[in-house]
Design goal:
Elements (H helix, E strand, L loop, with lengths): L6 E5 L1 E3 L8 H6 L11 E4 L8 E4 L2 E4 H7 L1 H5 L1 H7 L4 E8 L6 E2 L3 H13 L19 E5 L3 E7 L2 H10 L7 H18 L2 H20 L8 H9 L11 H7 E6 L3 E5 L5 E13 L5 E2 L9 H7 L10 E2 L1 E4 L2 E4 L7 E7 L5 E4 L4 E7 L2 E3 L3 E3 L4 E4 L4 E5 L4 E7 L3 H5 L5
Antiparallel strand pairs: 1-4, 1-22, 2-3, 3-6, 4-5, 6-12, 7-13, 8-11, 8-12, 9-10, 9-12, 11-14, 15-16, 16-17, 17-24, 18-23, 19-22, 19-24, 20-21, 20-23
Helix pairs in contact: 6-7, 8-9
The protein binds zinc ion.
Zinc ion binds next to loops.
C-alpha cells in the first residue's frame, strides 16, 4: 500500500458509560443528543474497544490497520521496537457522576498477574478477570473545567482528624494507630456488609442533611457522599467505597493544570471535564462505587499504603504558544497549544502525534481545516504549520523523545 504518512484527519469513538454527562461531548463533537444519552468518553487511539479512524481520500480507514501495514513508518522505528504498538490512549472525559475507586498495577506486577490468570484459564472477558493485559496504566489528565478527584491517601494526621471528627469513625482510630493505613483499609474492605451498613447509614443520612442545609462544600467528604445518595435510590446496602472518600485527598484542579496518577496510587474522578492520556492498558483494580467485580486481596496487593501529597502539574513553555506537562513515564507525553491568530505554530513529529482542537479552529499546512472537536494525526517525520484566525486551544498527545526510552530498561 502506498500510504502518505503525513497529516490526516482523525476520528475517535464515543463511550456512553452511565456516569457521563449528556451535553459536553455532544456539543464539543457537534452530535445531536435528543434522547439525552450519556456521553462519557471520547477515545482517540487503537484500543479494540474503541478504535479510531483516519481520513484518506475522504474515506475512513482504521488507524490500527495503517499501523499494522507498516508499523515502523506509522509509529517510528524506536517506538515500534520498544513498545510493539501505539503505547498510548488519548481521551476526553465528561464526569457527571463519580467513577469507581481504583488503582492500577505496576508493569512488573501486571505481567506476573496476567500470566497467572492465563494459566488459571480465566477468560479475558470473565467478570472476575482482573488483568486484561501485561501492561501498567499510568495516567495523566489535564482539567478542561474545574475538576474534582480523589487522589492518594491523606496524611496520618489528617486521617486521625477525620476519624475523630466523625462520631461513627471514632472506634476506628485505635485500629489505625495500632495497625496503620493498611490495617485500617483492609479491615474496612473486608468488613461484613451488615456492619458496613450500620456504620455508614447514619453517616450518609447526616451528609444528605448537611448538603441540603448548605452546610458543606466540595472540599468536604460529606458533600460527595451526599451526591452519591441524593437521587433517592435508597441508602442500603451502603457502598464501602464511602470510606475511601474520607481517607483519600480531595483534590480540585483548574483548567491549565494537570495531575499524574502512577501505579499504586488509589484514585477516583468525582466531577468535571478533562483530557486524559494513559498507557494502552485496561488493568484496573476496583475498591468501590462500582457494580463491577471487586477483588479485595488483589486490590490490597496493588495499593501503595503511604501518604500521597498531590502534585499539581503546571505546564512548562518550551516555545511560543505551547505548554508541555511533564509526566514521569516513557509511554506518553502531553502538551497544549494555544493560538490567537498572531503567530503560527510549527512542529515536526517524532512519533505518531495526535492533535485535538477543543476551542477555535486551525488550518494545517495551509490545506487541512480543523474545527472545534476535530482531531488530526501527524506521522513521524512529518512537519506541520498551524495557523488560526482567533483564540484556539489544541491538545497534543505524543510519545516522548527516543532518547528517553532507549535508555529505559525493558522489563
Ligand atoms: Zn485510573
Amino acid at each position: 500500500m502506498s500510504f502518505d504518512y503525513s497529516v490526516h484527519k482523525l476520528t475517535g469513538t464515543v463511550q456512553h458509560y452511565s456516569w457521563g454527562g449528556t451535553s459536553f461531548l455532544p456539543s464539543l463533537l457537534t452530535i445531536e443528543n435528543p434522547n439525552h444519552t450519556p456521553f462519557a468518553e471520547y477515545w482517540l487511539g487503537v484500543h479494540p474497544s474503541g478504535p479510531s479512524s483516519i481520513e484518506v481520500n475522504k474515506q475512513p480507514i482504521l488507524l490500527s490497520e495503517v499501523i499494522t501495514s507498516d508499523p515502523k513508518a506509522a509509529l517510528s522505528e524506536p517506538v515500534f521496537t520498544h513498545f510493539g504498538g501505539l503505547p498510548y490512549l488519548f481521551k476526553v472525559l465528561d464526569v457527571k457522576d463519580m467513577l469507581s475507586i481504583q488503582v492500577h498495577p505496576t508493569k512488573e506486577y501486571a505481567k506476573v498477574a496476567f500470566e497467572k490468570e492465563e494459566a488459571a484459564g480465566i477468560p479475558l472477558n470473565a467478570p472476575n478477570r482482573n488483568y486484561k493485559d501485561k501492561n501498567h496504566k499510568p495516567e495523566i489528565m489535564l482539567a478542561m473545567s474545574e475538576f474534582w478527584l480523589l487522589h492518594g491517601f491523606k496524611s496520618e494526621a489528617k486521617i486521625i482528624e477525620t476519624l475523630e471528627n466523625t462520631v461513627e469513625f471514632q472506634v476506628l482510630a485505635p485500629l489505625f494507630r495500632a495497625e496503620g493505613l493498611q490495617g485500617l483499609y483492609q479491615f474496612l474492605m473486608e468488613m461484613d456488609q451488615a456492619q458496613v451498613d450500620s456504620l455508614l447509614s447514619p453517616v450518609v443520612k447526616r451528609a444528605l442533611r448537611h448538603k441540603q442545609d448548605g452546610k458543606i462544600d466540595k472540599t468536604c467528604p460529606e458533600w460527595w457522599v451526599a451526591k452519591l445518595y441524593e437521587n433517592g435510590a435508597g441508602i442500603t446496602p451502603v457502598d464501602r467505597g464511602v470510606f475511601s472518600i474520607y481517607l483519600f485527598n480531595i483534590v480540585c484542579i483548574m483548567p491549565g493544570q494537570g495531575i499524574f496518577q502512577d501505579a499504586g496510587v488509589p484514585h477516583a474522578y468525582l466531577e468535571g471535564q478533562n483530557v486524559e492520556l494513559m498507557a494502552n492498558s485496561d488493568n484496573v483494580l476496583r475498591g468501590g462505587l462500582t457494580p463491577k467485580h471487586i477483588d479485595v486481596p488483589e486490590l490490597i496487593k496493588n495499593i501503595k499504603f503511604e501518604h500521597i501529597e498531590p502534585v499539581i502539574i503546571e505546564g512548562t513553555k518550551p516555545c511560543m504558544g505551547e505548554s508541555v506537562y511533564p509526566a514521569p513515564t516513557t509511554d506518553f507525553g502531553i502538551a497544549t497549544i494555544m493560538l490567537d491568530g498572531s503567530y503560527a505554530f510549527e512542529h515536526e513529529a517524532q512519533s505518531l502525534d495526535m492533535f485535538l482542537v477543543v476551542e477555535g479552529g486551525c488550518v494545517v499546512n495551509n490545506q487541512l481545516t480543523i474545527k472545534t472537536g476535530e482531531a488530526f494525526a501527524v506521522f513521524p517525520g512529518a512537519s506541520i504549520t498551524l495557523n488560526s484566525s482567533g483564540k484556539t486551544l489544541i491538545y497534543r498527545a505524543f510519545v516522548p523523545s527516543t532518547v528517553a526510552y532507549s535508555q529505559h530498561e525493558e522489563n
